[in-house]
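Researcher: If only I could read backbone structure tokens as easily as an amino acid sequence. Walk me, if you will, through where the backbone shape changes along the chain. I have put the entry right below:
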Amino acid sequence: MLTKTRSFRSPARIAILASAATAMLLVAGCGGGPRTNKGTAYVARDVETLYAAAKQRLDQGKARQAAALFDEVERQHPYSPWARRAQIMSAFSYYAAKNYNQSIQSSQRFLSIHPGNKDAAYAYYLIALCYYEQISDVQRDQKITEQALTALNDVVRRFPDTKYANDASLKIDLVHDHLAGKEMEIGRFYQNSGQMIAARIRFQTVVDKYQTTSHTAEALYRLTETSLALGIPEEAKKYAAVLGSNFPGSKWYDRAYKLMNRYAPDAQAS
């Protein structure tokens, strides 16, 4: 599960991106193929040739150049059917270049102009991915993590029966685990500083809000531990009992059992 920064580009999602991009890269046979052009300076070209040049750059891994050329398709031929296709491919190209802010802006612009387009689901998915891949480790501010969660939930809510929603659902679980990890990190800091009540609030948040994550067992143990430190063994017994019921073979229950046996034998959970 997710507790530190990791690469979020899973094979399954790469396959989704690739298949979606391939479906949109429908270049017409006319136009004679891309002309030689090493830059992206303005040169008036027919729409098919310009789009083909953008696709060629993308296929070559030159995502930044591809994005600029896809933007040029729309600029030179704003009323062409190719312009709409170029808009979403521009958003994808910016994403591939890791220019996440520009990808989000391009996707949002596409949605504002074509809200009912068949590629709307893909645009929402790109926005979610751009936030998701900027998630930092648990020791940093989690604003971007919250934005990723909101965007991923938006995909699931709007397009529940799509492959994008399936992938977003998996990522939501990882984001929840990440947010739980942040709560645990803060809670342990408070606990080590002797601020037991503040620590308990953080640990309780994990149990209440992120109970399906990998941090729940430790949170229950920390609640047992802080309850004993605050002199409320009955509360400690309650948390130790929940821990034993849900995670009977875990190291956290073993620690809780020994802790209760040592400091509150009369209240020890069975």
